[in-house]
Amino acid sequence: MFKDDYRKMNETITPGSELLKRTERSMEEIMNKKDAKRVSAKMALALALAGVLALTGVAFATGAVESLFGWFRDWGYSTTADIDQLNELADSGFEAESQSTQYNGNVSAELVQAYYDGYQLIIGARYQEGASKVILGLEHDALAMTRPDDPAFCATKHEPGGVYINDDGQIPEKSKLLPPYIIQWMTDEQIAAFEKMYAENGEAGVVLYTAGASDHIAVEGDDQNRLVPEDDHQNMQENGVMLRYVDFGDLIEECRDKEQLTVTLLMGEGVSAVRTDKDGIWVAGQPLGQLEFPYVVRKNEQDTTMLYGSYENDVYSAKAEVRVSDVSTRVIVDVTQPAEWLEARSDPKQWKTVEFIRMLYVVQPDGSMVSFDGMPTENGAYRWETALDLIEGQEEIRIRPYYSISGYQESEDIVISLENGISSVK
Amino acid sequence: MQNRSLRADDWAAEALRKYSDMVYRLAYAQVRNRTDADDIFQEVFIRLVKSSPEFESDEHMKAWLIRVTVNCSKTMWLSSWKKRMVFWEDKDLNRIPAEEAPAGNEALEEALDSLPVKMRRVIHLFYYEEMSVDEIAEALSEKPSTIRSQLTRARKLLRKKLIGEEAKRRVQG
Fold first, then answer.
1. Residue at which a domain ends, from B95, B127, B160
2. Angle between helix B11-31 and helix A17-35 axes, rounded to 10 deg
3. Are A212 and B81 an interchain contact pair (Cβ–Cβ within 8 Å)?
4. I want to staple B60 with a disulfide (CB 3.0 to 4.6 A). Which of A110, A147, A198, B55 is the partner?
């Protein structure tokens, strides 16, 4: 009976299609990056320009990463540029807008590295999460939230010592009178004082003001939060320290080519109230607001090479832009689309009846394909983009459309030559 | 030089196709909300392609995925402030919406919520994945006696909770 109910309940719990797509894309990117021997995009270009295409393999030293570009290298980004030099650049390319990198002494967000070349912004940050204030006692107003008979609030209730049994190796159990996610913000002395209060009164209370890293990082110019990081790698250390490396990918127009950008690290602040009595542990919380830690990131002098290509026929036109820097190669293709394409794209039922460009691929020198991400633009066109690693000996970047019915169309390839640094159209 | 991608015949694509529901359900059984389950799901499959382990068999791969899903769930539990900062008003936002859940399971949902995560994990592997105690013990690197005792305690707690709910309903009804 229980088994049947449990199984039935679980039938509806499946990963969403968006999650599956996102995961597949991430896996594909990692596999491509892992297996391809990479050379610096710029080096490939420079050597191709010089007509020297017999590149030697480049061995990457990998290992513990403590720096922005060390991390990038380990994650398979294309760079054989001087990592130390890039790190040096990232170490000095910013400054705090104010002295407020700390809040109440033990909560902080600090920019530790930043790279901005006008098109790409990558940052490394260190957050110290923790409690800015811990107030023991039963007097604080916030404890009203924990009164289950107050209709204005609901509190979550735990059985003392019954719910959180710490034999998962998760959080050392220090008190059966407090849940672990509260204990972690308290010192041993505060926990002991809480237990003493309970022993003396049969009831104990504590209110904690805590702060933690926000998912969002505010970037000047991105007023409508359109900038979604392409990579956001978070590494939780001990004692509430989080290291974070973020590549914002292709910057929106408003953030491009500025002399400097203000990047604001954010932390969310909240209050938790805990009251423990003979009936249970009552916990309630409320978000309070945001702590801001602004930094100015200066544009560096790194070169970026732009290459272009296009294709046009009676039905549509496509324009491709390739941006090659020390850090990455990025391909962006804008494709105009007739109204029926627009409609068919949003209706999978039409994918087998209406012929339209459904996907774009970059054809790698070994014949494998790297797919693009696409999204509609405001003017009704469709924009496709991808980050790419140039591969040893690569002479061109070849972009191929994939049609809904007929599949790949080689005759419509856009070919951007790396040999002479200009685009050529087949 | 061979560039691997997720083609139809690719081992990683096959793993995703075959085990995505299993990984997702196991993640959800532990963290009990979609946002965290999504994160764990993605992390597990990313780890799969990053480490590309040599699997001797399908069962080996399945055991690996179970182990990594459990480990990622533990890390998730420890990792982020926001995950532990219980804002009461947000508590139910990421649960499976009522209209998606089979009717009449609220009491079971609540009973599962009240279990420690390790018990939910064992309950899920035993009742949903239909693994034996020995198989669970092997996948989680635990002693079979530990798993057996967790299972027994979980059943007792669930029974107690579910009987309590039923009694409450009768009184209210």
1. B95
2. 130
3. yes
4. B55
**pLDDT at res. A47:** 34
Which is it for strands A241-250 and A120-128: parallel, antiparallel or unpaired? Answer: antiparallel
Residues A171 and A217 grouped into a single domain: yes
User: For residues A284 and A265, what is the distance between their CA atoms, to the nearest angstrom?
Assistant: 27
Amino acid type, A126: R
Domain count, chain B: 2
SS3 A6: helix
Say whether A24 and B6 touch across the interface (CB within 8 A): yes
Cβ-based contacts under 8 A for chains A and B: 170
Q: What gap in Å lies between CA B155 and CA B173, rounded to an integer?
A: 26
Q: Do B50 and A9 touch (CB under 8 A)?
A: no
User: Cα separations (Å) of A115 from A98, A217, B22, B110?
Assistant: 20, 15, 40, 48
Task: Tell me what ipTM this predicted complex has.
Answer: 0.78
CA distance A289 to A210: 11
Q: Measure the CA–CA gap between A79 and A89, rounded to whole angstroms.
A: 15
Last residue of a domain, one of B73, B95, B117: B95
- Of A259, A282, A299, the position where a domain reaches its end is A299
> CA B47, CA B62: separation in Å to the nearest integer?
14
A274 lies in which domain range? Answer: 94-299
Distance in angstroms (rounded) separating the CA atoms of residues A396 and A375: 25
Q: Once rounded to an integer, what is the mean pLDDT over residues A38-57?
A: 33
Residue A23 forms part of a structural domain: yes
Best B9, B26, B46, B81 member to test A by mutation, with max A CBs in 10 Å, is B81
- From first to last of its 173 residues, what are the pLDDT tens digits of chain B? 233 334 433 788 888 989 999 999 999 998 888 878 888 898 888 888 877 777 777 888 888 888 888 877 765 644 444 444 443 333 333 333 333 444 456 778 878 887 877 888 999 998 888 888 878 877 776 777 778 878 888 887 787 777 665 555 544 44
Structural domain boundaries, residue B67: 11-95
pLDDT, residue A148, reads 58
Residues A229 and A120 in one domain: yes
Which residues have a Cβ under 8 Å from the Cβ of B166 and sit 6 or more positions away? B107
Integer Cα distance of A269 and B82 in angstroms: 10
DSSP assignment, residue A162?
A: T
Q: Is residue A184 domain-resident?
A: yes
CB–CB contact A234 B79 (8 Å):
yes
Characterize A247-270 residue by residue with b for buried, 16 or more Cβ atoms within 10 angstroms of its Cβ, and e for exposed. bbbbbeeebbebeebebbbbbbbb
Share of chain A above pLDDT 70, in %: 76
